[in-house]
Amino acid sequence: MYDNLFSEKSLSDALQCLQNEIPFAIWETFYVTVLSTLLALVIGLPLGVLLVVGEKKGVLPLPKWVMQVLNVIINLLRSIPFLILMIMVFPLSRLVIGTTVGTTATIVPLVVAAFPFIARLVESSLREVDPNIIEAAQSMGATPMQIICKVMVPESVPSLLSNVTIALTTILGYSAMSGIIGGGGLGQIAINYGYYRYKYLVMLIAVVLLILLVQLFQSIGTRLAVKSDKRLKH
Amino acid sequence: MIEIRNLYKTFSSGDDKVDALQNINLTIADGDVYGIIGMSGAGKSTLVRCINMLERPTAGTVTVNGRDMGALSNAELRQARREITMIFQQFNLLMQRTCLQNVCFPMELSGVKKAAAKKRAMELLELVGLPDKAGAYPAQLSGGQQQRVAIARALATDPKVLLCDEATSALDPNTTHQILSLIRDINDKLGITVVVITHQMSVVKEICKHVAILDHGTVAEEGLVSAVFAAPKSEAARRLVYPAREGEIISDPGSETKVRVIFASAAAASMPLVARMARERSVMANIISANTQPIDGKTYGDILLGIPHEQLSAALDFLRGIPELTVEEVSDLV
Ligand SMILES: Nc1ncnc2c1ncn2[C@@H]1O[C@H](COP(=O)(O)OP(=O)(O)O)[C@@H](O)[C@H]1O
Ligand SMILES: [Mg+2]
User: Fold this and answer.
1) What residues does ligand 1 touch, defined as CB less than 6 Å away?
2) How high is the mean pLDDT of chain B?
3) Among residues A141, A134, A144, A154, which one has the least CA distance to residue B98?
4) N or C: where does chain B have the smaller number of CB atoms within 10 Å of the terminal CB?
């Protein structure tokens, strides 16, 4: 299938696509990914906090059934393949955005898929906080809310940043998949050109650009995480 | 004043039960520096954590300045904890905050205005000798410096009581000495009652006025440090005051009886005891080990002698005739 990759026709198609469609597709992928991650963070961060503080020995123990329900919901959403989930949340997309196709509409399944993932990542970040430091705060008369906001979250910022970066790059991958339901962006270009029209060069270009985006997000995220960590002696 | 009455703490997980504390009764006076010493696992941390209710006792009461700590509501307890602060073996500073922000932390919790908190925090950093480290992060400091910041933080809410749980156990001897001096200064200047948890006799000797010896969850012995050192009564106290020294194994129990001579004054300590015994009673004693230590300006110490069985009564007769000496036969390597 890669025989005519660099034929004259293939090259001119690719050039045209690069000029007309790719710049906007990069932007679409970028904004869908970032916006979805932020929205998923808004839901996932508090849930991740609850997963840690709500435990029996946590700083804000919750009834056991609440924790069980929370865990079941998160595990359930995490076990549905994204391709299926995209279709399953059509009613929700219609309700929230008014449509099920288009770039903005894919934000809904992306957020639904990402927030349980982020909740688990936040959970693991918060568990890294030294329990002795939490106890020290308790010994100074901190309320559970103060412990969450002034100790647990700030102390795990470096870890949270690297986990959010993982989430961001994963969501970038999902957003490319959403090209199948007309999601726009680089994923859609790859599918339209590569799968439907056999223009593999364009597909490859789209894929390379996706890789570059992942690299970009990852290196920015890693740099921020390292820079924010005051435990390291810079 | 801290009063601990009939305190019990049992940890149970499933069928496993650990009686960490059993019927503890202690009274700690205002302004005292009170040591609680014991081997690892004796229940020291559990006891000190019961004072500020980080650990809920299974039974018994803890009263601090007239307030029954176990009866307080959550909000009242948080309020009370501002007056009973704590420092730890691992310092437990917030690693993502500067030293200044760490010292501000307890004031932030209690709603002190930012500018006022900052000013007070700077004063406290000055008090502990680290004004130049205000902007540094804990990871950039040595252990001793981190503990100083932790002490400044513990003083930020003007506490009446400072609890120190193995506060110097992670530090080298020199730094330990400096931190203990700082704690003593704080006790002197601010009149804060200090409870010192440790497994090291040297720490108790250096700063405590009173001591309780904790052994397997019970108080084995309690009293003035000088009194406990001069004449340890309990088995647990003796283990701490007369730690088994390497030399003790060189004595041959077949031919010698071991006799411990304990002296409670400089006069007794500086007497040429063994030489006089040899000349006056012809007892050929073997010095197995010897040790002296100053406590509260007095000299305490002990000598462990190996005395040939046939000369034992002559030796005991001689030794018991000397004032300020306590003499006892030692049956095993305790
Ligand atoms: N949270 C806990 N759960 C179960 N057992 C505990 C707990 N905390 C302490 N213990 C047990 O209680 C005993 C006393 O512990 P601790 O107070 O930490 O001793 P120390 O501080 O003197 O070394 C030990 O046997 C320890 O294993
Ligand atoms: Mg301990």
Assistant:
1) B 11, 18, 20, 38, 40-46
2) 91
3) A154
4) C
DSSP string, A3-51: TTTTSHHHHHHHHHHHHHTHHHHHHHHHHHHHHHHHHHHHHHHHHHHHH
pLDDT higher than 60, residue B334: no
What is each CA distance from B249 to B11, B237, B257, B288, B328, in whole angstroms?
39, 21, 13, 8, 18
Residue B307 to residue B329: CA distance in whole angstroms: 10
List Cβ<8 Å contacts ≥24 apart for B49-53: B49/B165, B50/B4, B50/B7, B50/B9, B50/B21, B51/B2, B51/B4, B51/B84, B51/B161, B51/B163, B51/B195, B52/A139, B52/B80, B52/B81, B52/B84, B52/B86, B52/B163, B53/B77
Mean pLDDT on A93-105: 86
Which chain A residues are closer than 8 Å to B80 by Cβ? Answer: 141
User: Which residue's alpha carbon is at the smallest distance from atom 11 of ligand 1?
Assistant: B20
What token pair was written down for B234? 């309990």
With tokens 């002490």, the residue in question is B151
CB < 8 Å to B112, chain A: none
A10 touches chain B (CB under 8 A): no
Reduced to 3 states (helix: H, G, I; strand: E, B; else coil), residue A103 is coil
Residue B224: name the closest of B149, B295, B311 by CA.
B295
Judge contact between B165 and B122, C-beta under 8 A: no
Number of A to B CB contacts under 8 A, please give it: 73
The predicted-structure confidence for A43-53, as pLDDT tens digits, reads as follows 999 999 999 99
Report domain A8-229's class: mainly alpha
Residues B81, A230: C-beta atoms closer than 8 Å = no
Q: From the CA of B38, give the closest atom in ligand 1.
A: 22
For residue A96, give Cα distances in angstroms to A83, A90, A105, A112, B146.
Answer: 20, 10, 9, 12, 52
d(CA B217, CA B279): 48
Number of other CB atoms surrounding residue B36 within 10 Å: 29
Find the helix or strand (DSSP H, E) in which B202 lies: helix B201-207
CA angle A111–A114–A116, rounded 5-degree value: 115
**What is the four-CA torsion angle of B115, B120, B121, B125, rounded to 10 degrees?**
140
Average pLDDT score, chain A? 91
Sign, Cα dihedral of A127, A68, A111, A210: positive
**What type of residue is B157?**
T
**Would you kindly state where each structural domain of chain A is located, as residue ranges?**
8-229
